[in-house]
Structures are given as C-alpha cells and as structure tokens.
Design brief:
The chain is of the alpha/beta class. The protein is 29% helix and 22% strand. It has two domains: 5-21 and 233-431, Enolpyruvate transferase domain (UDP-n-acetylglucosamine1-carboxyvinyl-transferase, Chain, Alpha-beta prism); 23-219, UDP-n-acetylglucosamine1-carboxyvinyl-transferase, Chain, CATH 3.65.10. It has helices at 23-35, 49-60, 95-106, 126-134, 168-178, 196-203, 236-248, 267-274, 319-327, 348-358, 389-398, 421-431; strands at 5-7, 14-18, 38-43, 64-67, 71-76, 89-90, 112-115, 138-142, 146-152, 160-162, 185-188, 209-211, 214-217, 230-231, 253-260, 278-282, 291-297, 306-307, 333-335, 362-365, 370-373, 383-384, 406-409. Strand 4 and strand 5 (71-76) form a beta hairpin.
Length: 432
C-alpha cells in the first residue's frame, strides 16, 4: 500500500482559517466524560483516527458515545459500571491513547488487553509500566516494554514520584491511575510538560493541586468526578504548519482563529518571535485553556535560533516543521536536548533530516537534535511520511518552496491528527 500523493500547492497563501480541535484535549475529554456518570458534550473535537480509537475503547467498556461532525456526545453509566471487554482494546497508532488509557485501566478492577499497530508495538512502554507498578498496578507487556499490555485488577497505592523523563504521557498515566489510589499521590516534574490532564481534571471537578513543578492528588480523586461539557480549542500543533507556510511563502498573509495557546504548548510562538518572524496574536482569552487568533505574514529575513531547555517540551511536536522553517533563516540553527523525538511515530530526528536532505536542504541529525543550515529546495524526489502524520504534513509544506509537484508516500497518515489538511491548504491558495 503506497498511497502516494502528488502534492502541489502554489503560494501566496492568503485568508482566514480554523484548524481542527486539539488532539491532546479531545482524548482527555473523552476519557473523563466516560468515567463520569451522566451526559457530557465535547464541542469542536478532533475527529482524527487517534481520538476515534479512544472513543471505540470506551464504547467497548459500556459507554454510549455518539460522534457527530462538530461534537461528541457521551452518556456514561459511570466507571463503576464498566464491563470487561471480551476483545483486545485496539489503540491504532495513538501513543496518547495507549499510555493514558493504560494508567486509567490499572485502577478500574477489570481485566483488559491493550494493543496497537506495528508502530505502537515499537514504542517504549516501560516508562509508564515502571511508575504504574510502583503504584501496585498489575501490568505486563512483551519483554516488559512493548504492547500488547495485559492489565489485571489491582488495588492502586498513592506514590511520591520524581519524573525521569519530560513526558506528558507518562505524567498523565500516573495521574489517571492515581484517581483510584487509596492514598494521596505527589509527582515532581523533571521539566515543564503540557498540563492538559491537570486543567481537564479540574474541569471535571477532580481535586488536583499544582504548585510549580509539584502536582498533588488526593486519595480516591475519582469519587469527585462530575460530567461536564467542554469546548475544544484549535490544536496549536496543527496550526504550526500554517504558521510556517505563511512565514516561508512570498506574499502570504494567513490568520488562524481559536488556537489553543496553553503556555506549556506555545513553544512555536516563542520560536517564531525569537526568529523575528512576522507573527501577531489577538482575540486572546484567559480561560484555563487560553485561545487566540494568530496572524502570520511572509518573513524573508528570519534569524537562526538555538532551541534547547524548556523550549523543547513546549514545542516537541512541532520540531519537524520548525526544522523546515529554520532552513529559511539567514544562519545556522541548532536543536538540542530533544531525544524524546526518537520515540515518536518515527525517529523524528532522523526522518526529518533524511527526507529534507533528499530535497536538497542541509540538515545534520545529532544524538539529541539537529543542526540546520540555510538551504533551499533543489530537487524533487519521492519522499515518505513513514506513517508519521507530522512528517507527512511537514513535507507538504516543504512543497511550497518548489514549483514542481512533490510525491509523498503514505501521505494518508495525516488523517491521524488533521483530516482535511490538504483541502484547507488549497483553500488559502485559492484565496491567495
């Protein structure tokens, strides 16, 4: 199955758009709405493949969920009435579903098997299994590190835990398990990571206290949960492709409305600002999950940048598209301390460098990041997403720097987080 796509987009890109709802928040809203007894509605959710996997899992556990074009309606009997599923809970390509649901299942008192596709089967799970076992969870996997994960009933204990990696998925797996713990839980963060689990717990009435890098949960926090409606902001990771497209394509002027700008996720805005790209935020809200409209215009004289420290976890998903942006700066940019990229859908350090180098750009992969030289799209070659949605979209944006069509293998991977990505890009081309 090659499902190759010839992508040809011509600038300038002009117009106003919205991007799909935030993937991280949609997942968590489905999970929390399903745990609570009663009805919750999620407005403007992301209906990508990953989030639909999460929906299917909770249906198998006995939750009524109706998916419509612009909302997901949940009617749940509550977590106490979940049924033991007599089949594998399939997570597809979704690391978020796999790791968060694993944490949640540990305390539910039912026996389950959690498994995903080939890509998930290669992603390390010991990072969640270790702290979950420390909480007395009964969870095993292949070679103690890989899916399928087998989870059996257990009495969950509260723990005091220092994070070993800066990973929101690991933190969230612990927090979801802690809902069922008989003692309080305290987590000390290794580095700032996205805090959607914390804001969403609060939204669904779960008592959680956050003080700098310390997160505290009471015992049996699950008993406080209440159903709630939630409006999902646009996903900043999806907006990032349009931000970069506008900055690198002559004559472009793009406005993206209702984008989530949670400070644990808004690294891309800081990066563009530091590079002196032409970016403006307006219509800002100050909810626990703040939003803004973002306007970008073509910026031919951007400065190079060094990306490291706490900027990395705040822009981890955007690094492939940021790497493309950095090829257009007027000096060499460096990304460091981004080892986490090696354990995404692909090794995103190597894949980003290899694919862009095929097209004539000059990127050097390093152990923990990239060195990116000012360079241009010099030749067309067949490139490949390797089933990684963020690589597929990054390559589509790269095609803006060429007059020729770019063949991208396995392009349909973009449906994981952004169904309708190309039509939206085409819409700006037409308007331009």
């Amino acid at each position: 199955m090659s499902n190759s796509k010839l992508v040809k987009i011509n600038g300038p890109l002009v117009g106003e758009i919205e991007v799909p709802g935030d993937k991280s928040m949609t997942h968590r809203a489905i999970m929390l709405g399903s745990l609570a007894t009663g009805k919750s509605t999620i407005y403007k959710p992301l209906l990508g493949e990953d989030c639909l996997r999460t929906v299917e899992i909770f249906k198998l556990l006995g939750v009524q969920i109706e998916v419509n074009e612009d909302k997901i309606e949940i009617d749940s009997p509550g977590y106490k009435y979940f049924k033991t599923p007599h089949q594998v809970l399939y997570t597809g390509n979704s690391g978020t579903t796999t790791r968060l649901v694993a944490g949640l299942l540990c305390g539910l008192g039912i026996e389950t098997v959690l498994s995903g596709d080939e890509s998930i089967g290669k992603r390390p799970m010991d990072r969640i299994m270790k702290p979950l076992r420390y909480m007395n969870a009964n969870i095993t996997g292949i070679n103690d590190n890989y899916t399928p994960l087998i989870i059996k009933p257990a009495s969950i204990s509260g723990i005091t835990y220092e994070m070993e990696v800066a990973s929101a998925q690991v933190k969230s797996a612990i927090l979801f398990a802690s809902l069922f713990a008989n003692e309080p839980t305290k987590i000390k963060e290794f580095d700032t990571t996205r805090n959607h689990t914390e804001t969403m717990f609060e939204h669904f009435n779960i008592p959680i206290a956050v003080n700098n890098d310390i997160i505290e949960m009471p015992s049996l926090g699950i008993e406080h949960i209440k159903p709630a409606d939630f409006h999902v902001p646009g996903d900043i990771s999806s907006a990032a492709y349009f931000i970069v497209a506008g900055l690198i394509t002559p004559g472009s002027d793009i406005t993206i409305h209702n984008v989530g700008i949670n400070p644990t996720r808004s690294g891309i805005i800081d990066i563009v600002t530091q590079m002196e790209g032409n970016i403006t935020l307006f219509n800002q809200t100050d909810n626990p999950e703040p939003t803004a409209s973002i306007r970008v215009q073509y910026s031919p004289n951007m400065k190079p940048i060094h990306i490291d420290g706490d900027l990395v976890p705040r822009a981890i998903d955007e690094i492939p598209i940021v790497a493309l942006l950095c090829t257009q700066a007027n000096g060499t940019s460096i990304v460091k301390e981004a080892e986490e990229l090696k354990v995404k859908e692909t090794n995103r350090i190597d894949t980003t460098a290899n694919m862009l180098n095929l097209l004539g750009f000059t990127l050097q992969p390093t152990n923990d990041g990239l060195i990116i030289h000012p360079s241009a799209f010099e030749q067309t070659a067949t490139v490949n997403s390797f089933t990684d949605h963020r690589i597929g979209m990054m390559l589509a944006i790269a095609s803006l720097l060429s007059n020729e069509a770019l063949p991208i293998e396995q392009f349909d991977a973009v449906n994981v987080s952004f169904p309708g990505f190309l039509p939206k890009l085409k819409q700006l081309e037409k308007e331009g």
